[in-house]
Amino acid sequence: MRWEPARATAATPYEQLPLLTALGRGATNHCPACGVGRVFDGYLKVVPECAECGAPLGALRADDAPPYFTIFLVGHLLVPIVFWVETRWHPPMWLHMALWLPLFAIACTLILRPVKGAVVGWMLRLGFAGQEHHGGGLENVPPRPAQPPSGPAAPGPEGAARGPALAERDPAAPTW
Ligand SMILES: [Zn+2]
Question: Residues whose CB is under 5 A from ligand 1 (ion)?
Fold first, then answer.
């Protein structure tokens, strides 16, 4: 089965994966779309396309989301333990540092990759297909037509001033 982006806006997307399936596949380094191919080429580098189904995994830009979720998870996992150890034994600060800093680093290193895989799966599930970087980007926005200088004088009727501008809009132009 070849992966296909959901081109329809809402009615009939190609095949809507269950969210947990997409997250689980991504977290275990399996392509969220087919479950067979790999997500990562190396520790964190995402393959450009799934070798099995061709899903454009490399175009899914997870950006800062994986570090954010990783910090969130590791913090909630370890900070309570830090507080518990402090209140229970009151160890010296150097011992805290010697213990927790490496532990936080190791935990983040271990968790970052599955979290990033899950984020890639989540993005695919949400319908991201990399199109937001190829075709919908600012580089393709047509230049604005030259506006006549609008001085403070001649305040025309509200509707008349805005009507033609709306009518002249290129329907293919983005709507922001
Ligand atoms: Zn695949």
Answer: 31, 33-34, 37, 50, 52-53, 55
Q: Which long-range contacts (CB under 8 A, 24 or more apart) does 54-58 make?
A: 54/2, 54/3, 55/3, 55/31, 55/124, 56/3, 56/5, 56/129, 56/130, 57/31, 57/32, 57/120, 57/124, 58/130
90-113 pLDDT tens trace: 999 999 999 999 999 999 999 999
The total number of structural domains in the chain stands at 1
Residue 49 lies in a domain: yes
Tell me how far the alpha carbon of residue 173 lies from the centroid of ligand 1, in angstroms: 32
Q: What is the pLDDT of residues 47-94, one digit of tens each?
A: 999 999 999 999 999 999 999 999 999 999 999 999 999 999 999 999
Is 138 inside any structural domain?
no
| For residue 131, pLDDT beyond 80 | no
CA of 7 to the centre of ligand 1 (A): 18
Asked if the structure places residue 150 within a domain, the reply is no
Domain range for 114: 19-126
Residue of 173 and 13 predicted with greater confidence: 173
